[in-house]
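The freezer alarm interrupted the setup, so I double-checked each line after restarting. Inputs confirmed:
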Amino acid sequence: MANSTIAISEKSYLEEGTTKKASGIASWLFSTDHKRIGIMYLITISAFFFIGVLLGVLMRLELIAPGETIMDAQTYNVIFTLHGVIMIFLFIIPGIPAVFGNFFLPLQLGAKDVAFPRLNLLSFWIYLIGAALVLISLFVQGGPIDTGWTFYIPYSVRTNTNVSLAIFAAFVLGFSSILTGLNFVTTVHRLRAPGMSYFKMPLFVWSTYATAWIQVIATPVVGITILLVILERYFGVGIFDPALGGDPILFQHMFWIYSHPAVYIMILPAMGVVSEIIPTFARRTIFGYRAIAMSSLAIAFIGYLVWAHHMFTSGMSQTATIIFSFLTFLVALPSAIKVFNWVATMYKGSIDPKPPFLWVMSFIFLFTIGGLTGLVLGALVTDIHVHDTYFVVAHFHYVMFGGTGTIFFAALYYWFPKITGKMYNIKIATIGAALFFIAFNTLYFPKFILGYMGMPRRYYDYLPEFTNLQIISTIGSWLMLITIVLIMYNLLSAFFNGKKSEANPWGGVTLEWHTDSPPPLENFHEIPEVTKEPYDFSQLKTMKHVPKGEEYE
Amino acid sequence: MSNHTAELTHEVHRDDVGARMGMWLFLFTELLLFGGMFLVYAVYRHEFIDQFRIAAMALNTTVGALNTIILLTSSLTVALSIAALQKGNKSLSIMLLVMTNILAVAFMINKYFEWSEKFQHGIYPGSETLLNLPDGQILFYGLYYVMTGLHGLHVIIGLIFLSIVMVFIFTGSVNKDSYVKLENAGLYWHLVDLIWIFLFPLFYLIQ
Amino acid sequence: MQDNHSHENHEISYSTYLLVWVSLIAFTSITVAVAGINLGDYTLFVALCIAALKSGLVINIFMHIKFEDPIFKVFIGISIFTLIVIFTLTFFDYFYR
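Predicted 3D structure, all chains:
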């Protein structure tokens, strides 16, 4: 008898919640169900991502020609600051952990929910409060912040714009991140299903776990930095003020002690998703499971050792520059280990080029470029020339957007049928993935050349010889906007009008694919007993949900 | 359609080890928060050691030592409070928590007098007197106010936390068989004590 | 898998706690006394060592770590180690300015 694709006797989490009232906004806003919380994060994070995209498009419009085009210098400073603050603090740092970590960590562990469901809801509310504070800071006296997202001393103390409220918003958002991290670490240690030893956990769990540690340990350092800047603005304490003996470079140290590990908060979960998608679409067990798992921990650890590579030209001691440059090269090692293992997994695999897989291919290419150009920046002599130029801007967009951003889409396309029980239009999704690749490189590759030629970052005006490349990049931003709209259309129309999906259309074998799509409120009808390795595809012979046409009798 | 679903969500799976684990993870964030401040202290002490020594002479070692003893004793009372509850002695447990709170208030009162004395001498962030001092001393006092201020804030938070748990013990929801909330409040309180254990020598004992 | 009981069953006696408290007060007195002696560069080191000893007592006995699941000790180790790393690397700047 064919396996049933959707269980119709049990309600899904979309129909049944944890609150007394079954439906309505309140049943979502007060829900402690990790799946609903993940969806709420998805909606708000996507909205802020889109706003960030629009800000980027505006920046590119200004930069289509030298001189003032559509905005003056002060406005441009505000726009790039907000673009950075929104993209970093409201999109990419919460990003994959808040959406997919929340939704899938318990499912992949075979648990009913995270360790502290009410704390999880609090994390989301705190995120909303932080987001609201960012928005409010735009309109309060002083005007929106114009320091760049890095709010360096001394300008962040001297400017009259509303720095305090904006960075306090970042402080609040930091709390959300901390509480999520704390929740996830405890969940991994305490709520694994029977039989799931640490080395039977899926790799997405490993990467989410490593990320959670960074969230807990690194975030407080930027918290205290933010507090010190606020105190400096109000009380002139002097801690970073050279006139009173303070050291502005100390600010940079403290800022980057968080903000460098923060980029590993951004990329580690994405790498975890890649480790999920590749085995499924190559229908082969992952190559080098332990190496990939350990490399996540290694990246998290080494990530703490490299922060001052953002400060090579700041004036710190030469000894420090040499040491940090050396340490920076080390972090490439565990990342490379992952890439080699992924490629090895695909070798002689049975590739199914569905959209999630295509996005992952994009990721490997774009992230590799980003990673390699990071080495250029990590080497002292080359960094002197390209620091604070468009080269840096191109590098971090390749790793953050081409890396994490790409996988945010990949994860959406991979887990969409599990989350919603519906399927999107595969053709449009494929076109979207291809268009993204073209748009991305058109938008960002010219920036490497511009930076190498000397175009400084955060400038709204530039020398005439940069014009042609700036125009190409701006056209890329239009292509990107079209692509994003297409993707949103693809997914939203599938959510509202899409056809029902099979429960396991891709043939995944990690625990989330063993339950219904969408999952019931408590995730599993019975707590699973884990006996197999996480990417053992022989499980498809006995699982309840397998792709249509692959059922065994 | 089944109606049993409403009950499923109320199934309470108690995990005290997990609860303590969560609390410890939160304590690590506090450790790193103050750790950042200690880093700032270390950097400026390294640069301005002589001025730090001079400025430290203006702090009252006796009051500092007294506050240290107060906090150490309050850690004792909260630990004894847990032991008492484990033995089923509810009223002793509450009394020990009350003592802890009294000691916390005593600490804050001492702090208030210390700070007022400095204010009266015109030594506070941004004051003309302070700004006329050498840089190292300006930084010493800046660090003093920020770090003891932040610490004092945590004393108040701890006080509130302990008081809430006291109410829970009184009503019986925290009791001999279920006392992880008291343990967690105690953990937070001990952290407050630990921070002071390091603040004390670094600010009061560097003559 | 949940082992709520390994910790719970271990009750610490009042007298153990009192003994720890006496030690803490003693260490504090030593710290204050030592501060009066001029040990030059070693004063800071000695003061921090004594503070570390006091912390060890508070963490292990008052905060129960000695009797908790070993994973807690690993966690504490990770956090302290991270702090040490941060201090060390920062001072590669300040020691060599």
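Quick read of the result. The mean pLDDT of chain A is 95.
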